[in-house]
Design a protein that fits this description.
Structural class: alpha+beta
Number of strands: 12
Strand content: 15-25%
Order of helices and strands: HHEEHEEEEHEEEHEEHEHHHH
Helix content: 40-55%
Radius of gyration: 31 Å
Strand order of the largest sheet: 3-4-9-6-8-7
């Protein structure tokens, strides 16, 4: 048996001689890995969901009033009637790079499910946060991304809801949703409009204008460009034209609008995420480091004997690092296993708990675990280097 194999045997013997200590050490690392990977997966899931509707929509260019930066707040108001609106429509119709365009209303509001018990009695459900969207049924720009059940075009007094809204609140085809001061009959369900905290509800643009008392106004103008046209260049040209007409606007490409929509949520989450990730890392290092340090102190006499018979510090250091590495490896396997195992079931119980685990993030967590193992081994190694081999033979 080589010296390296002997050192590895010593490391394993020390590590597995106390099962309780090993379970605590591995459990600490596993908890840390679990929290880190879980939070990263949660962040990825939110990032995918929040910007998904804009990113997968059929809109190439979003046109809004000054200050409109993202879809969630939809802080925009543009005219559909009057001199400015007529000039804008003429320009949009005449511009050769534009394939289609239409107005679109987006309003964040609350709705409720209504169950009619009798002609005079009804049961009101809990409040639901929704993004109420009015789109043009002819162009379908900004409409449902994918209709999976029922009709794909809402008529007067009708809505299409996102499937997640239906799942969470038990709303199906034929049910009544009250929003915007009206009762709407659900005629379809769509996919792709889940913003975690809110879901989309689609009506025709004319119905949205009437319900929200926005006659002569809209939130956005949405544009689909012809093949080969750069939306960013078109947006700059539209902004210049509007500025010359003293009616300033802002335009966003699909990618820009999706990013700013994500940033609206993730910019508030990231500081909290970093703090929790830091705490999880400290927990893993502390638990693993403490247990390995304790094992090193208990075996101080044996290490002293090894030093006395000629083993250099580098070989003894390897024992500690191998103990730390094995602990980290076991903890990593358990922690990642928990994250992957919990992911598919988490959203069934907590709809906002959307996990998306990427292999790149798994590699990142593996790297963090290696760093954790190195730091956890540092203090025991220093203690090991300070052991005096002569002292073990005294008294």
């Amino acid at each position: 048996m080589t010296l390296s194999q002997q050192m590895l045997l010593v490391a394993r013997k020390n590590l597995f001689s106390e099962w309780t200590r090993l379970v605590i050490s591995v459990g600490g690392v596993a908890l840390s890995v679990f929290l880190i990977s879980l939070l990263l997966s949660l962040y990825r899931g939110w990032d995918e969901k929040v910007g998904g509707f804009v990113e997968h929509s059929n809109v190439d260019l979003w046109l809004g009033s000054e200050g409109a930066e993202d879809f969630l707040t939809a802080a925009s108001l543009l005219p559909t009637e009057g001199k400015e609106a007529e000039q804008a429509k003429e320009y949009l119709n005449a511009y050769p790079s534009i394939d289609q365009w239409s107005p679109m209303i987006v309003r964040l509001m609350q709705g409720v499910r209504v169950d009619r018990i009798s002609a005079t009695e009804e049961k009101i459900g809990s409040k639901i946060d929704i993004h109420f969207i009015g789109f043009d049924p002819n162009t379908r720009l900004g409409g449902p991304i994918e209709v999976i059940e029922g009709r794909d075009t809402p008529g007067p007094g009708e809505v299409i809801i996102d499937e997640k809204l239906g799942d969470r609140h038990g709303i199906g085809i034929g049910d009544t949703l009250r929003a915007g001061g009206r009762d709407w009959t659900v005629v379809g369900k769509s996919r792709g409009g889940d913003f975690i905290a809110t879901q989309t509800v689609f009506v025709s643009h004319a119905e949205a204008q009437a319900a929200l008392r926005m006659q002569g106004a809209t939130t956005f103008y949405v544009i689909k460009v012809r093949q080969g046209v750069d939306p960013a260049q078109l947006g700059a040209a539209l902004e210049d034209q509007a500025a010359r007409n003293e009616a300033p606007i802002v335009t966003h490409t699909r990618e820009e609008f999706a990013k700013s929509t994500r940033d609206r949520v993730t910019s508030n989450v990231l500081p909290i995420l970093f703090v929790v990730l830091g705490l999880a890392f400290i927990v893993g290092v502390s638990v693993a480091g403490l247990t390995i340090y304790t094992a090193t102190i208990e075996k101080a006499r044996e290490y002293g004997i090894l030093k006395a018979v000629g083993f250099r510090n580098t070989y003894l250091y390897r024992v500690v690092f191998e103990q730390s590495a094995v602990t980290a490896l076991l903890g990593f396997a358990v922690g990642i296993g928990l994250t992957v195992g919990i992911g598919p079931f988490a959203s069934d119980y907590v709809p906002q708990f959307v996990l998306f685990t990427r292999w790149q993030d798994v590699l990142l967590v593996a790297g963090v675990t290696v760093v954790m193992a190195l730091i956890a081994a540092y203090i025991p190694v220093r203690r090991l280097g300070a052991i005096d081999p002569v002292s073990v033979f005294k008294g």
